[in-house]
Design goal:
mainly alpha; 3 helices; about 110 residues; about 65% helix; elongated; about 0% strand
Length: about 110
């Protein structure tokens, strides 16, 4: 196979259950997508909240911004809890190979946090 470990477990020294190519692909994709998500949040603030300052008083704009930030934080906590329980469930003491699917799921939960 041209890319061992991509479609099945690797035979590298990482361990029998390691998938280094899959982990690298997923991790690289998510790291590259993070600036896009940050830019989307900034664009929302620029395109939606900034024009409101011309329509409603400034103090109401600050209250709206505060409410949006609080709602975003609450949604992020709910998303983190849901992702943790869906991807990992309850953590149990065990030995896991690096670049295994458990490692990838744990990394995803840490990235969401």
């Amino acid at each position: 196979s041209l890319f061992p470990g991509l479609l099945g477990p690797a035979t590298h020294s990482f361990g029998e259950k390691s998938w280094p190519n899959l982990c690298a692909g997923v991790q690289g994709s998510i790291i590259l997508l993070e600036p896009v998500l940050i830019a989307a949040r900034m664009m929302l603030a620029e395109r939606v909240l900034l024009p409101l300052t011309f329509v409603i008083p400034l103090w109401q704009t600050f209250l709206l911004l505060w409410a949006v930030i609080i709602c975003e934080k609450i949604l992020r906590v709910i998303l983190l809890l849901a992702a943790k329980w869906v991807l990992i469930g309850r953590y149990q003491e065990a030995k896991h190979d690096i670049y295994s699917l458990f490692y990838l799921r744990h990394w995803l939960v840490e990235r969401i946090a």
